[in-house]
Amino acid sequence: MDAICIIGAGDCGARAAFALRENGFSGAINLINAEKGIPYERPPLSKPDEHGQFVREIAASERYDAAKITLLSDVNVTSIDRRISSLFLSDSSVLAYDRLLIATGATPRDFPNDPDECALSLRTKDDAEKIYTAAKNAKNAVIIGAGLIGLELAAELRGQNIDVTIVEMAPAALGRAVPKAEADRIVERHISAGVRFIFDAKIDRLAKGMVALEDGEKLSAELIVSAIGVSPNIDLAESAGLDCGNGILTSSTLATSDPKIFAAGDCACFDHPRYGKIRLECWRNALEQGECAALAMLGGCEPFQKLPWFWSDQYELGLQVVGRPDPADTITTRDLGKAATISFYSSADGVLNAAVGLGVGNAVAKDIRLAEMLIEKGARPPLTSLTDPTVNLKKLLRS
Amino acid sequence: MTTWIDACAVGDIDEEDVIRFDHEDRTFAIYHSPDGAFFCTDGLCTHEEVHLADGLVMDYVIECPKHNGQFDYRSGEAKRAPVCVNLGTYETKVENDRILILVN
């Protein structure tokens, strides 16, 4: 095998490129980056550090050189020709591949009634630059969508003393991703910071400096950000005739309907041994699927079966979720002290399925990590030991 | 100049666990290994400045509480992405049930 191409240089594609080398691949690696510059991590875009810094490179450019990874930036793939196993690029070049990884990520959904394109969205470094530049001169902002990105951005903008209103079409924040108890606590924290929420909102239209609701209220908005979710970038795969649904469909080893082509990260709808067909939009999944796809391209056949895991930072609060919390499960909550809690989700037969932790900073991290290992092990920890903070989860894991 | 600094009592750290220790403008992580030895590294992960004392210790590995990068806390060696830069390590010794670290 001589050449592997990777379309998309986000966390997933870049991680896959390095993982190929770490696993002994000595052929050519072309990492195709639609954006300008060196690939960067996306999580800090909605959570700048205390100095306002939101750009963190995945790796310094010397590391690409040292690993002999050819990084092609500011260039798009215009088509995939599977008959000749080649990619056609926007700079008119053609790249042949023996294996191809599609890690094209996702794109924010456009707000539908925004004829003058007043709403900004947040996905790329350039998007973040626009939002934070606009924020410097803004007294007020409206964020459409009370999902994780919208809420993280709200916390950041409140930190800059901007009046924030969050307009959400659904009756509550954070939808299905975060259980109600934790979502409520996060919303309360926002309200205490002065954020106004409008739930069950119906937006009439957006205009420059203003969001008009159907009930006639007009919200002043020097900054409007739409954060209503993303759609997977599947156009290239669809045009190439690969099977797609809610994402590029893959097997449990991340192979698409063409055995030479793999898909990973936000764009991939894969077969998870535990959950069936799912598509995940989180940072750790992007990294882990990048690694898994790299091994699969080199002939490995390990299915991807990592548990979904994500975190969110808002104000001083840190949220971590592992597994897929199902409200139908038995929920037991452990008080970790200092206002940190962890809720465990166990099925009727006692098997631990998911855990949700919320506390200050990273107070829940250790226990969420241990919960993850318990879930992976298929453990059935007694509910009384889950609620009892004196029972060390590490001991449960080893028992 | 290197100096031995009194960091904490032996009993302050559970076996196979870690605590934070701040000294002047620096922050450290001090570990109690499963075989009863003590180790000290820089406190902040080399990937993003997250304190490792909130992370999980399993055997001789500390895992970052946020991004799951891993280090061998005995050598400071980076073991798993996203971390790629090793942690600084510091000598430790135990005197009269106190843990001391050698800081330069």
**Count of DSSP E strands of chain A?**
26
Query: What is the molecular shape of chain A?
Result: globular
Helical stretch tally of chain A: 10
Q: List the strand order in the largest sheet of chain B.
A: 2-3-4-9
Q: In angstroms, what is the radius of gyration of chain A? A: 22 Å
Question: Residue-averaged pLDDT of chain A, rounded?
Answer: 96
Strands of the biggest beta sheet of chain A: in what spatial order?
A: 3-2-1-7-19
Helical amount among residues of chain A, as a percent range? 10-25%
- The 3D shape of chain B can be described as globular
Termini Cα gap of chain A: 45 Å
Largest sheet of chain A: 5 strands, parallel
Taken as a percent bin, the fraction of beta residues of chain B is: over 45%
Name the structural class of chain B. mainly beta
Let me know the average pLDDT of chain B: 94
Largest sheet of chain B: 4 strands, antiparallel
Quaternary form: heterodimer
Radius of gyration of chain B: 13 Å
List the total number of helices of chain B.
Answer: 0
Features:
heterodimer, A: 399 residues, alpha/beta, five-stranded parallel sheet, five-stranded antiparallel sheet, 25% helix, globular, B: 104 residues, mainly beta, four-stranded antiparallel sheet, 11 strands
Description:
- The complex is a heterodimer of chains A (399) and B (104).
- Chain A is an alpha/beta fold and 399 residues long.
- Chain A is built from 10 helices and 26 strands.
- Chain A has helices spanning 11-22, 61-66, 125-136, 148-159, 180-192, 235-239, 283-297, 365-377, 383-387, 393-398; strands at residues 3-7, 28-33, 69-73, 77-81, 86-89, 94-96, 99-102, 106-108, 140-144, 163-167, 196-198, 203-207, 210-213, 218-220, 223-226, 230-232, 244-245, 247-249, 261-263, 268-272, 276-278, 309-314, 317-323, 330-337, 340-346, 352-360.
- In chain A, the strands form 7 sheets. In chain A, strands 3-2-1-7-19 form a 5-stranded parallel β-sheet. In chain A, strands 22-23-26-25-24 form a 5-stranded antiparallel β-sheet.
- In chain A, a hairpin with a 4-residue loop joins strand 4 (77-81) and strand 5.
- Chain A is globular.
- The mean pLDDT of chain A is 96.
- The model of chain B has no long low-confidence stretch (mean pLDDT 94).
- Chain B has a 4-stranded antiparallel β-sheet, with no helix packed on it. In chain B, strands 5-6-7-8 form a 4-stranded antiparallel β-sheet, with no helix packed on it.
- In chain B, strand 3 (26-32) and strand 4 form a beta hairpin.
- The relative contact order of chain B is 0.26.
- In chain B, 0% of the residues lie in helices and 49% in strands.
- Chain B is mostly beta strands and 104 residues long.
